[in-house]
Structure formats: structure tokens, C-alpha cells
Amino acid sequence: MTPVYTLAAAQVVTEVQPTVDASGAASWAWLLVALPLLGAAIILLGGRSANRWGPTLANVMSWGAFGLGAAILIEMLGRAGDERAQSLHLWQWFTGGSFEVNAGMLVDQLSISFVMLVTFVGSLIHVYSLGYMEHDPDKGRFFGYLNLFIAAMLTLVLADSYVLLFLGWEGVGLASYLLIGFWYQRSDYASAANKAFIVNRVGDMALAIGIAMMFVTFGSADYSTVHGGAAGAPEWALTAIGLLLLGAACGKSAQFPLQSWLGDAMAGPTPVSALIHAATMVTAGVYLIVRSNAIFDLAPTARLVVTIVGAITLLLGAFIGMAKDDIKKALAASTMSQIGYMMLAAGLGPVGYVFAIFHLLTHGFFKAGMFLGAGSVMHAMNDQVNMRRFGRLSGVLKHTWWTFGLGWLAIIGFPGLSGWWSKDKIIEAAFVGEGWQPWVFGLVTMLGAGLTAFYMSRLFFMTFHGSGKRWTEDVHPHESPLVMTVPMMILAVGSLALGAILTAVKFPEWLAPVTNGGHLEHHEPVLAIPAIQILTFVLMAAGVFVAWRLYWKADVPVVAPEGSALTQAARTDFYQDDVNEAVFVGPLMTTATGLVEADDQIVDGGARNLGDGVAGLSRVLRRAQTGFVRSYALTMLAGVVAVLGALWVMN
Amino acid sequence: MNQEFTMVEINYWAIAPLLVVVAGALIGVLVEAFVARASRHNVQLGVGLVTYLAALVVLLAKSRTEHGLTMGGSVVIDGPSVFLMAVILCFALLSLLVMAERFGGPAADAFTPMGAATPGSDLERSAESAGWGTTEAVPLMMISVVGMMLFVSSGDLLTMFVALEVLSLPLYVLTGLARRRRLLSQEAALKYFLLGSFSSAFFLFGAALLYGYAGSVDIARIALAIGAASPVLDGLLLPGVALVLIGLLFKVGAVPFHAWTPDAYQGAPTPVTGFMAAATKIAAFGAILRLAYVGLSGNRWDWEPALIAIAALTMVIGAVMTVTQTDVKRLLAYSSIAHAGFILVAVMSFDVTGVSGAMFYLVCYGFTTIAAFALVTLVRHEGSEATDLSQWAGLGRRSPVVAGAFAICLLAFAGIPLTSGFTAKFAAFAPAISHGGAAGAWLVVIGVLASAVTAYVYFRIIVTMFFEEGAGDVVAITPSTLTTIAIAIGLVLTILLGVLPGPVLEAATQSAQFLR
Predict the structure, then answer these.
(1) B chain contacts of residue A651, beta-carbon cutoff 8 Å
(2) Which pLDDT score is estimated for A13?
(3) Before B170, cis peptide (omega within 30)?
């Protein structure tokens, strides 16, 4: 029970994994971005005709990127340990005075893991969308945006500097905005897109300032310089940079206190929710923290804040997930909560980085699978999302039911399935440490497991099981076509086995060179590991049991009961919108109104008076221009006399 | 005095460009006499184009390297004179393309069918119905160009005076040849002539005083005399300097010698206005630069304050007067006055970078101005030019290309970045800051404020064109290829010199050294 790891910076050895020049398949890594980008450009410029060939082209480009990514991965697996991280210089991006920014790519274990997740899940969702968006009059545009997203997300994870990462970061934000507002004809969807965009601006601003601070501190913003120089930088600077990066991550990953947009983002088409708002983009914040491990290792304060933010969001998301009746919003709350797990793990430092990524990958599969399942349910139920109007769908939607079921078992951490492998590791890591921290964070994660089990079971039982069908009269559920169910099945296989597979191939050890300086030390939790596992299992079982009592055995009312104060608060996302309104929007609007007034009165007033003055002077002077040549000549003569007189007087 | 006559040495290669244009002008006069009226227009156009191109080729191929004094010191071929002559020839070429425009049909050409006919007389009507044109404008312009080229390269005050008259007299005539509003045009020509003569008299008087002081009209000799400083005749120097400079400042339209500018610009045929604005300004500034930097720099502390005051006054009055103008051509006239003030700021830096800055400014301003006036010729109301600003309302909707092109010119005049106007202002103001001392800095401050005032006016025009509803009967007519080429070159250079000013700025810098 002696903690080996302490939070003192001095004992942390930061090693930045050295890179070699890219060769072989990795030297083609730029194509990973170029292919989907080209697809997006062609489709979006193609106009209406893209509705015919656009979906196919987008699929080809996405699968092409996946194929190349797989080739790079296979080649990387065959390389010696110290040659796996490869850097690919592309071109000098811009220079300004003494600093220059190069565009380049870093292909290492971490980025290739993301490449595989993004391209594989992304491509599956491309396929699924062929069915889901089949009858949409604008599907060309949709697939163009999807390809744009893939390109931007790959830029984000493959960048070798924070500046290029920022480009991808903004790119995924743009794609997310465009896709949330894809049905922009509905004003509430359009405003949901705006909300997501504006809330993300806050985080993006933090990232921009963070990058500026890197330029000030290190003179550069590429990973090798920043991470290599972190050991020599003052701790306050690292803490500040770390907190700014955390701010960025909070925006993109919907973490407290910038979580309010994710629920509204569900306005986008469901495949988008699966890809962007569950599997990939929202996890970019976790990627950012893990990628910046060299900074966070030396900034324990910033790391502690990361952990706290993760813990808060983990519970917040779980509570919101318990109260929502909208199937997509409940899943969104669950995403928030699961990313809270990842953030918490990332904040734990070297004990947690790899498990954050591990959970991120498994979560990418089972959550995407469940979102696609939700899409399939909506497809069957005339686009309804209210779970109180579902029930006993297991009989009608067989494939959707079993694929969703595997996702459900995975997320609640049923032993043996994907989520169990990754989440239990996080819980164990959370119990590592000394003082109050392991107990607080450990118990939060353990409690979170129980809550997850409850709200996910609630969702699953309300939708697929229960005592009766609460369908509205006009629905005639039917299973979705194969083009939609096959991707769900593939993802379900991932939900089932990915955790075991990644554990079997020693994924954490493989990833360790990027995050832990090459070696994964084992740390002893403050509670015995079997005890943690048993307690977690008991809590999970309790959660499932309560949900079973309430939502399977008992009748679920079609109209939501009023509920307790906590339920009501959770339904409204804990009044996040009202808080934002009161704390930020209101004062800002007051200030803006005041400034407009001041601008009108003082600035414009001054300018108007000045303008009037000039015009008046002009009118007076204009009288001199009489049109009489005699007066012109007189003016000239007066001028000559004045010049001569003045010179005479002066000399 | 029993002085033996010696023939002066003439370097014919050095003055070859001048001779080519003189020859072209004489051929043009012969064409006027012997070629049938029907084909005169095309023949004159051909003669003019060939002449300018040939002169340009000779200048750049041969005369460029023939630096030195020739014709007994009357003509100086050096960096500035070669650069300015080349630019004058380019401007003449572009202006000729615009002048040669013949719309035919109800849309009138720029020139009257018969300059000698009384306005509104039967003679004028019959000339019009016969389809005559004032083709003599082409040789007149060539003669004027000869004067301009000589003006920037003259080595003594008498040659300068002759050049001044050679460039001015054809312009007086050209001013009176507008087709519409004949009386206004003739009145403008007369005013221009009277006031021009008035200023020529000042110049001549000043030259006489300087001769009295230095015993020579040679600019270099005058410089030597100022350096030697003879106290006896000191009283002649300052009045002489002042009067000579006043004569030149009249030509650039500096306040208070600017009164002719708006009237002449408005009355003259619009293509001629463009040519006057661009080419006369560059010629006059060439002479001012040579006189101020070579001849009179020795006692510049004495006369500098007057010029600084004139520069400041020119910028302020020029800018302020644009505000109340309702006629496009008058507005551009006042704008040209303000621009003359900006160029004077560069001149007052008394540094070699000031010379290059002023020359670069003149290049930028000239190309934009020719394009702008060419665009003015296209905007028509019932066939005749619609120069009243109220008539331009809504032009951006009916003729977006013409209005857009004019907007680019206005942005350049306002000095907006990515147009030549910005780089030019920078090139003109930078030397004043770095070499002009406190006075230079103050002039730049005034210049920037004046720019702000004019920018307001230009933007108002853009707003009028694009955001106001107007009567639908004012439209832009489609010009012939020639005018289109001229406008296109002007606009392309306006953008190009704003984005990539390097090559031209470099050329101006390398040509900025006067031969003393």
C-alpha cells in the first residue's frame, strides 16, 4: 500500500520520445489529410450534381484514408521500438521575424491510434449514412462536410505543432458547426449550431492564448521544442499553459464549465452525433492533454485541475443522463460523463495517460455503435426521440437490439467487454496517490460506474424492453436496411472484444513511449485491486437492478413525472443555460449596449461634428472659386505677394 | 564683346527620344494636311502609337546609357530625366488609346468635330453631320509631350521656359476642344491660357532675376553662384527663386496657384483631362525636383519655409474642397491638388529617397488617374457624359464592372493598402519622416489627416454608386478595345504596384541621382 508515485514534479522524469524521419508508408501520411480534403472540395464545389456521386466519392476517400492508415500502422508495428515515432516535414508554413512555423506531421503510436479510430469509425459511419441520409435532398453537402471533418480531425491528430493542431482544431469546429446546423432551415437547429460554435470559441480562445504563451516561453510551438524545453521552463508558465490547454479541452470535449453545447448539438443528423459528438471530435480535448503530457508532468497544479474538472463532469453528465427522456440527449450526457472519466485519467499523470486513451478508443466504438443504434431506432419510429414513447422494441428491431445491447454492456463495464477493460483501469489508477486525492477521485469514479450502469440501463430498458409498448399510433417500426445495420454490427464486435484485444496486444505498453517516457510503472492503489473490482461490480449490478425495477418491471408513464428537485435540475442541464445567461450573456449585453451608446454619443458624435466642420469649411472656401478668371489671377497674385513678403520678412 | 562662336556638342543618341517625338508631331501635321479626312483618324492614331513606342524603345535602348550634359548643357540626361521621360511616354501612350475612342452613334466622342467653328453654328452642325473629327489632337498632344520631356531634362532656365511653353500651348488648345458644353470648354481653355501666361511671366521674371544674380541661366552655374555667395546681388536671389518656383508650382496646381485646375479639368475633353493630370504633373514635378535639388539647394533654408507652407496649404485646401464637389471631374481636380501636396511632402525631405518617393508616387498616381478619367468617359446620360455625382447613384447595380473599376481607382486615391495609393503614400511620406526633420513630420501628419478627409469623399462616391437607388437612364457604355486596354493597364498597375511595388520602386531608387 505504499504509494510509489508522488505528485512532486522533481521526481517525474520527462522524456520526449525521439523521432526519425518518416519513411515508407508514413512518408505518404499527408495523403491521410489530402484524400478526404480533396473529396470535400470536389463534392462541395460540385453543387447539386454531387447528390448523385458525392456519397460514393466520400466513402471512397474515407476508406482510402483508412487503408493508408492501416498500412502505416502495420509498418510501424514492424519497426524497432525507437523508430516508431516518425516526423514528416511538409513545408515552411510562415515566418515572421525570428520565428518560423513549419507544417509537418508527427506519426507516432498516439497519433496512429487516433488515425485508426477516426478513419475506421468514420468510414463505417460514412457507410451507415448512405442508408440514413438516402432520402435527404442535400446529401451531397452532407457527405462533403463529413469528408471535411475527417480531413480536419486527421490534421488535428497528425500535426507536429500546436499551430497546425489549431488549424485542425478549428477545422473540426467548423465541420461540427456545419453538421449540427445541417438542417439549418429549422431555426432551433441553426441556433444549436451557433451555440456549439460560440461556446467552443471560449475554449479556442484559450488555446490561441496558450499557443501564444508557448511562443513567448519556448520561442516555438512545435511539439519537439515545447516538450523538449518544458523541463527548463518555470513552473508558473507551465501551469498557465496547462490551464489554457485545459480550457481549450473543456470547450472541445464539453467538460465543465463549457459542457452546455453538447446536448444541443444533438440537433445534427444522428451519424454526425455518432462520429463527431461521441467518438472522435469531442475526445480531442483528451488528446490535447495527453499529447501535452510533457507540460502537465511538470505542472502538478494544472493536472490536479484537470482531474477535478474530469470528476465534476463525470458526475454531472451521469446525473443529466439519468433525467433525460430524449434518447440522443441521454447518450450525449453519457458521452460527457465518459469523457469526464478520460479527463480524470489524463489528469492523474503518467499513471493515467495510457488508460485515458485506452478508454477513449473503446468508448469510440461502443458509443458510436449506440448512437447508430439510436439512429436506427429513430429511423424506425418516425424520427421520434422520446424514450417514453418507445418500449419493447427488441422484438421488432432485432439487429439494433443486440448491437445496442453489446454497447450497453460495454459501457456499464460488464466484465469481459470492452468498457470493463478500460474503465476499471481508470478506476484503479484513480485510487493511486497519497492524501485525500485517491480516496476522492477513486470513489467518484466508482460511484460514476454505478450511476452509469443505472442511466444506461434505464435508457436500454425504456427503449427495448419494459412492460408495454408506449408507441404513438402512427408508428410502424421496421428494421433498418443492411447498409445501416452492418456498420452497427461491426461496431458491436468492437464493443465486445476491442478491450480484450487491446489488452492482449499490450496496447498500454505500446503507447507508453509517447506518454510515459517509455516505461509503464505499476503503482499500487490505496485499496486492493480485487476490492476495487468487486466493489465496482457490486455498484454496477445495483445500478442495473434499480433500473430494472423502475423501467422494466414497472410501468413507465408516457408523460414524465414532475420528479425531485435534483431531477428537474438535471433535466435542464443543471441550469447551465441560465447560469451562462446570467453570468456571461447578461453583463456582456449590458456592456455592449453601453458601449454602443457611448460610441453613438462620443465617438460618432465627435466624428459627425468634425465632418460637419470640414464640410462647412469646404463650403466657405468654395465661395472663392467664383469662376471669374480675374479673381483667380488676383488669388495668385496675392499668393505671390504673400510668399515674397514672408520670405523678405524672414530673411 | 568679341567672342568666338563655337558650335555646341550634341549627343544625338541622348536626345533621340525627343527628336523621335518631334518628328512624329511634324508627320502628324503633314497627315492633317494631306491624308483624306475619312482615314485621318486611323493614320493619326498609328503615327502617334508608333512615335511613342519608338521613342520609348530608343530611350530605353540607347539614351538610358548616354548620361551627361548635351547641347551645351541645355539638356541633361541623367537618372531622373530618363525615368520621368519613360513614364511620360507611357502615360502618353495610354492617354492616346483613350483619346482615340470613337463611340459613333448617339454617344458622342470626346472631341468637337471642328474646333474653329462657333459653338452652335451651322458650320459646326454641318461638320458634325459630315462625321468630321478633331484628329489634330494627336499631333498637338505629341508636341506637348516633347515639351514635357524637355521640361524634365532641361539644364538651364531658358530651355526650361521654352519647354514649359511647348508643353502648355497645345494643352490650352486641347482644353478647348470638348464636344459637349462647347462654351464651358472654350471658357476653360481661355482661363487656362490666361492664368498659364500669368504664371509663365512669373517664371520668366524669376529666371531673369536669377540670371542677374548668377550671370547665367544654367542651373549648375546658379548652384555654383549660390555656393560662392556674392553679397552684392543677394537681393536678387530670393525673389528669383520664389518666382521661378511659383511658375512651376502653378503647373502642379499647388495652392494658392491652383484656381485654374478645377475649371480646366472640368472643361477639357475628359481624355485630355486624364492626360493633363497625369503627364503635366509628372513633368512639372520633374522640373521642380531638378531645380530644388540641383540648382537651389544651396540656400534652401531661406526658401524652404515658404514651400512647406504651400505644401501644407495644398494638402488641406485640396482635401477640404473635395468634400463639397458635386461634379466628378471637379472632384478629381481637387483630388489632384491634394495629391500634388502629398508629392511636395516627399520633395521637401531633400534626400535622394525623397526623389525616388516622389517619382514613384507620380507613376502610381498617373496610371490610376488615366484609368479613372477613362472610366468617367464611359458613364453616359442620353449619349453625353454624366459627370454630376448625383447621376452616378446606383451605377454599381446597372454597370457593376465600370463602377467596380472606378471604385478600385478611388480606393487607390484614398491610399488603401493593396492598391498603389498606399505604397505610393508610404514611399512619399517615409523620406519626409526620416530626413525632413520636425517640419517633415508635421507635413506627414497633415498629409495623413488630409488623406482621411479625401478618403471620406471617395468612400461616399462608392456608397453612392453601390448603395443608393438612382435613375435608370445613366448607364456605362461599352468602350472599344483601345480604351479597354488603357483602363485595364491602369487598373492592373494600380493593384500590382500596391501588391508588388518592388521592381518599380527599385527602378525609381536607382534613377534618383541627379547629374550636377
Answers:
(1) 238, 302
(2) 45
(3) no
Q: For A223-276, how does the pLDDT look when each residue is reduced to its tens digit (9 = 90+)?
A: 888 888 888 888 888 899 999 999 999 988 888 888 888 888 887 788 888 888
Number of cross-chain residue pairs from A and B with Cβ atoms under 8 Å apart: 76
| Type of residue found at A118 | V
For residues A70-90, average pLDDT: 83
pLDDT value at position A3?
Answer: 31
Cα separation, A246 vs A412, whole angstroms:
27
On whether both A235 and A353 belong to a single domain, the answer is yes
- The answer on pLDDT for A573 being more than 90 is no
Q: Is A472 on the interface with B (CB under 8 A)?
A: no
Q: How far apart are CA A345 and CA A511, in angstroms?
A: 15
CA distance, residue A618 to nearest chain B CA (Å)? 5
| Mean pLDDT of the region B14-24 | 94
Report yes or no on A3 lying in a domain.
Answer: no
- B479: confidence class by pLDDT, cuts 50, 70, 90: confident
pLDDT band at B108 (very low <50, low <70, confident <90, very high): low
Residues A459 and A586 in one domain: no
Provide, as residue numbers in chain B, all residues whose Cβ is less than 8 Å from the Cβ of A617.
320
B291 touches chain A (CB under 8 A): no
Report whether pLDDT(A6) > 50. Answer: no
Structural domain contains residue A405: yes
Between β-strands B474-476 and B384-385, what pairing exists: parallel, antiparallel or unpaired? unpaired
Based on the domain organization, do A186 and A282 belong to the same domain?
Answer: yes
The total number of structural domains in chain A stands at 2
Cross-chain residue pair A618–B324, CB shorter than 8 Å: yes
A617 and chain B in contact, CB less than 8 A:
yes
- Chain centroid to CA A642: how far? 74
Q: What is the mean pLDDT of chain A?
A: 84
Q: Residues of B numbered 187-246 whose beta carbons fall under 8 angstroms of chain A's beta carbons: which are they?
A: 190-191, 194-195, 198-199, 202, 238-239, 242-243, 246
Neighboring chain B residues of A624 at a CB cutoff of 8 Å:
259
C-beta of residue B327 within 8 angstroms of C-beta of residue B266: yes
Asked if A75 and A110 count as a contact pair (C-beta separation under 8 A), the reply is no
Interface residue of B248, B250, B299, B320 to substitute, partner A, most A CBs within 10 Å: B320
Residue A4: inside a domain, yes or no? Answer: no
pLDDT in tens, A155-170: 999 998 898 999 999 9
> Does A434 lie in the same domain as A287?
yes
pLDDT digits (tens, 9 = 90+) for A365-394: 888 889 888 988 888 888 888 888 887 888
For residue B155, what are the contacts with CB-CB under 8 A and spacing of at least 6? B69, B73, B74, B75, B76, B218, B219, B220
Q: Which residues from chain A sit within 8 angstroms of residue B190, using beta carbons?
A: 629
Q: Cell digits for A43?
A: 463534392
Regarding whether A525 and A622 lie in a shared domain, the answer is: no
Contacts of A638 in chain B (CB under 8 A): 256
Distance to chain A for B188, nearest Cα, Å: 9
Render pLDDT for B178-222 as a digit per residue (tens, 0 to 9).
888 888 999 999 999 999 999 999 999 999 999 999 989 999 999
Same domain, A418 and A354: yes
Whether the CB-CB separation of B355 and B490 falls below 8 Å is answered with no
Query: Are residues A451 and A308 both part of a single domain?
Result: yes
| Domain limits for position A615 | 579-650
Beta strands in B131-282 (DSSP E): none
Residue A258 belongs to some domain of the structure: yes
Q: Which one of A553, A571, A589 terminates a domain?
A: A571
> Taking Cα atoms as reference points, which of A296, A16, A33 lies closest to residue A156?
A33
Are A24 and A46 within one domain? Answer: yes
- Angle, helices A629-650 vs B300-323, to 10°: value is 140
Contacts with B335 from chain A: Cβ below 8 Å: none
ipTM (interface pTM): 0.88
Inter-chain residue contact B242 with A644, CB threshold 8 Å:
yes
User: Which residue did the predictor score with more confidence, A520 or B493?
Assistant: B493
